[in-house]
Amino acid sequence: MASAELQGKYQKLAQEYSKLRAQNQVLKKGVVDEQANSAALKEQLKMRDQSLRKLQQEMDSLTFRNLQLAKRVELLQDELALSEPRGKKNKKSGESSSQLTQEQKSVFDEDLQKKIEENERLHIQFFEADEQHKHVEAELRSRLSALETEAAQHQAVVDGLTRKYMETIEKLQNDKAKLEVKSQTLEKEAKECRLRTEECQLQLKHLHKDLSSRLEESLSIINEKVPFNDTKYNQYNALNVPLHNRRHQLKMRDIAGQALAFVQDLVTALLNFHTYTEQRIQIFPVDSAIDTISPLNQKFSQYLHENASYVRPLEEGMLHLFESITEDTVTVLETTVKMKTFSEHLTSYVCFLRKILPYQLKSLEEECESSLCTSALRARNLELSQDMKKMTAVFEKLQTYVALLALPSTEPDGLLRTNYSSVLTNVGAALNGFHDIMKDISKHYNQKTTIEHELPTATQKLITTNDCILSSVVALTNGAGKIASFFGNNVDYFITSLSYGPKAASGFISPLSAECMLQYKKKAAAYMKALRKPVLESVPYEEALANRRVLLSSTESREGLAQQVQQSLEKISKLEQEKEHWMLEAQLAKIKLEKENQRIADKLKNASSGQVAGLAQDSAATAPSTAGQEEFAAKAVSEPVQSTSLIGILTRTCESEVPDVESREDLIKNHYMARIVELTSQLQLADSKSVHFYAECRALSKRLALAEKSKEALTEEMKMASQNISRLQDELTTTKRSYEDQLSMMSDHLCSMNETLSKQREEIDTLKMASKGNSKKNKSR
User: Fold this and answer.
1) Are 172 and 725 in contact (CB under 8 A)?
2) Which region ranges are annotated with the description Disordered (predicted)?
3) In contact, 464 and 520? CB cutoff 8 Å
4) How many CB atoms neighbour CB 234 within 10 A?
């Protein structure tokens, strides 16, 4: 988990690094563009400065010329004012001089007109220059604001990048510290592993020496003692009896039992589905009780009525297959002959599905053509017709694969051993497909029933039939899911355990050789049972030697031994006589007991007919002698009697009524039967829990193996990750330096741009002031 998290972190860092590199390139392009824009702006400012200086010089010259003209006009006005009184006095002299003044006036008027025109032209030029200056000023201000916003954005991006880089550097430093701790622990583990490997190598050397010596000894024994090699030919190797694996057989029987239960559930669901479908055809779209249904539906219902003859054999075939798997047999594909019968039954059911499929499709089309069918119901019927086609195709696929699995027990060349795994995986895929199709059928049929229930013509009989069909479809879906998950969990076990013999040889196992192998197995088991007969007890060897020494060392003679033999014979004869005497006594006592029982029975019949059997039994069980029986019979008539049994103690008198013994025994029997049922259920629960725990243990062992593999892979990934970390740190240092340089350059560039902009603003302000002064002067003029 830690390695996966580290790998995810490194992937994220690599992605961020690539993003930052892309952003760096974009920023570089932006900086270059800004530099080019600033250079262009500088050139434009220079040109504007030159044009402004020229205009200012022209304005200065014009103002100077205007001042000169104004002074000259004033002089001329003064001269006119002086010349008017003189003209009155000297009319005559004025006529001569008037010609001169008129000429001068015309010259002055022409000069004045020229000056006025020139002044108008200068006013027009000044107005145009002022407007152009305002327009340029507005453009420069807008560009200045845009540049300021871009500079702020760039500064924010730079700040964000610096923060990200600082966070990534801190994360990498923390990861580096963690990795250093992990590397230290891994180094310790590596040292321990090295020590263990050295120990293992030493053990391997010792074992190699030991095994080599044993191999030499065994080879020498084989060469000297074994006359021939009986494993040379593969066709004869198939006759060898494999090792009896009781655990494997119990496992296969358990798996077959689970499969039988699943098939039984599936068979009941299929029977319910076909029968309820038949009932639905009789009700919808035309009720057979009111009107006659179409001949197509009649034929379809007739075929559906025969479903039990095709569906029931599936359960029977699976039951025969389960019964053929016992603890004494070898369960492989070559020995499971009952697989052929199950395959035949499945083939017959697939033929039945093919036969009813066109009628089912036509029946759905007939429902769509009826006046009660809406557009939504018609769409659901079309979906169901497609689902029924898929269901038949899936059953055909299953039938082909099951027929292939049945081939090794009948035809040896029909299916090679190398194809077992592919056939089994295809069976699992087909079962999963069957489950998916049943889920689609359940969904579409549920939608169809909801639409039909909303119809105004829907009867209660149709609603109940639809609910029954829907429940059977749900049962089919659940059964298909259970079978698919069951087969998927056990497919690996099937692949590894459904064949026997040498794995290198292929195609040497045939059904005949498998049958012969089973016969040889039975003979070997019988021979082993014959060898396991109990051995007669004998005197131990040491005890026999001690007795022999006693016999040899004894001082008894043959006469003494003969006397001992005679004495023992006499004792035996006396014991036989006593035995005969006591046998006769026992017979007499038995006869007397029978007579006494008859007498007591006759007496008790007069009192009550129900107590005779109990008194006879108590007297037969407790009477030690005939005298005791007479006393007991005398007391039985007058006094109450107690009878003891396994059920309890019952006290009764002659006058009391006979108790209901049968009802009490029925209660006890029912109690014990309920107890037995409870114990069997507990036993089944314990068996299921044991199977579940076994599966969990197996899954945990697989997880442990995968965890060890992942640990090895993670150590390698840790090495690669440490290398990547060092490389990324170097790249980060280089990129950090480059970004710092770029940031310093950008800050310098921004400062220079701010200075130039401030200068431009000052120049613009001076130009405004100058233009305002000129405009005021022109207005005053």
Assistant:
1) yes
2) 84-106
3) no
4) 15
